[in-house]
Amino acid sequence: MSDLAALQRETLAAIESASDEAALEAVRVGALGKKGSISARLATLGKLSPDERKMHGAAINALKDQVMEALAARRAVLKKAALEAQLEREAQDVTLPVRLPGVGTGRIHPLTQVMEEIVAIFAEMGFCVAEGPDIESDDYNFTKLNFPPGHPARDMHDTFFLRPDAHGERKVLRTHTSPVQVRTMLTQKPPIRIICPGRTYRTDFDQTHTPMFHQVEGLVVDQSSTLANLKWVLEAFCKAFFEAPHIGMRFRPSFFPFTSPSMEVDIQCRRSGGDIRFGEGDDWLEILGCGMVHPNVLTNCGTDPEVYQGFAWGMGADRLAMLKYGLPDLRDFFDADLRWIDHYGFKPLEVPTLAGGLSG
Questions:
Q1: What SS3 class is residue 20?
Q2: Which of 23, 49, 234, 266 is most exposed by smallest CB count within 10 Å?
Q3: What separation in angstroms does the CA of 233 have from each of 140, 217, 220?
Q4: CA angle 336, 338, 339 (to 5 degrees)
Q5: C-alpha to C-alpha distances, 147 to 14, 55, 141, 203, 255, nearest whole angstrom
Q6: Under a CB-based contact definition with an 8 Å cutoff, are residues 201 and 173 in contact?
Q7: How far is CA 227 from the centre of its chain?
Q8: Which phi and psi angles does 286 have, rounded to 5°?
Q9: CA atoms within 13 A on the CB side of 55
């Protein structure tokens, strides 16, 4: 029995001195594991006489129970100590300056900012946003918009054509967002007042052109739309977008298959070095095209041109972003350069509104 008392002292001392749960588990395995010291003594009971087995078995089982209680108590102490150490290690000093979260360090791309600005302006005028697919049929992209067969815009040098489908039809990557106007007129009855922002595609690539770019087109169709209404809408937009109290505008005759009459719109500006200031100076800068919706387009879309008339316009959002925020090269928009985004980007929580200011 003396060796059992020594084993008791040795095991309890090892439990008490265990510095962490891993060390405590090693003590448990050494005492109560399959080949542990206490388990080995329990295995010898089968060789003893009934009287000896009863006496020694009671003592060994009492030691086992005592060791298990000591293990549980020590484990609770170690867990508490580990939790306190973790809390101390992860404690935050609330008096320190607040670290900027991810939303504070991220930036909104200038193009996204400009698109949101445009939507905010036209939403205040009562326009709805309409969207459509990037892959369009030739009918929606050209034919219903009064592009005659053989028109240069259908040429391979301007348009991305897809391979013919099972029916022999060649779809295209839309060259403008005008097909969204077609889809709207085919599914809605006038009055219609929409803007159509989205990606467009043409085979062009240089400092001011990319194969994929962004357009925002607008459409109004009702019984009383006039050229004067169109000019007022565009002037109100330019004043709000460029945040200038006065914008000089010049409407020049032009030609588009889907409008008649058609016009190019220039705004007054002054170039000084690399800067452009709007609303002053003697220079002019073209920013968009517009016109009254051609009667053939209305007819193609199921609208009676004897009852309804409309006006439409289209502008390049990428070009507007370059003009407003002084971005010299359109290709930088698509390089995914974090340094460029950090420099030209906008804070994500500064949502553009007419009341609060478009550009913050």
A1: coil
A2: 49
A3: 26, 13, 10
A4: 125
A5: 92, 108, 9, 19, 12
A6: yes
A7: 38
A8: -75, 135
A9: 7
Residue 221 pLDDT > 90, yes or no?
A: yes
CB atoms within 10 A of CB 261: 14
Residue 153's CB is within 10 A of a number of other CB atoms, namely: 16
d(CA 332, CA 207): 9
**Tokens of residue 146, six digits:** 């009064």
* Contact assessment for residue 78 and residue 21, using Cβ atoms and an 8 Å cutoff: yes
Q: What is the pLDDT of residue 359?
A: 62
Model confidence pLDDT, tens digit, residues 31-48: 878 777 877 777 777 677
Q: Could you tell me which of 337, 124, 357 has the C-alpha nearest to residue 242?
A: 357
Query: What's the CA gap between 221 and 224, in Å, rounded?
Result: 8
Backbone angles phi, psi at 85, to 5 degrees: -65, -40
- 208: alpha, beta or left? (left if phi > 0; alpha if psi -120 to 50): alpha
Single-letter residue type at 46:
G
CA nearest to 292, candidates 278, 305, 280: 305
For the residues of 205-246, what is the DSSP string, one character each? Answer: -BTTB-SEEEEEEEEEEESS--HHHHHHHHHHHHHHHTT-S-
CA distance 44 to 22: 29
Helix (H, G, I), strand (E, B) or coil at 284: strand
CB burial of residue 341 (10 Å; 0-12, 13-18, 19+): middle
**With contact defined as beta carbons under 8 Å apart, do 229 and 126 qualify?**
no
In three-state form (DSSP H/G/I as H, E/B as E, the rest C), the secondary structure along 52-110 is HHHHHHHHHHHHHHHHHHHHHHHHHHHHHHHHHHHHHHCCCCCCCCCCCCHHHHCCECH
- Of 237-241, 267-271, 293-297, 351-355, give the lowest mean pLDDT range: 351-355
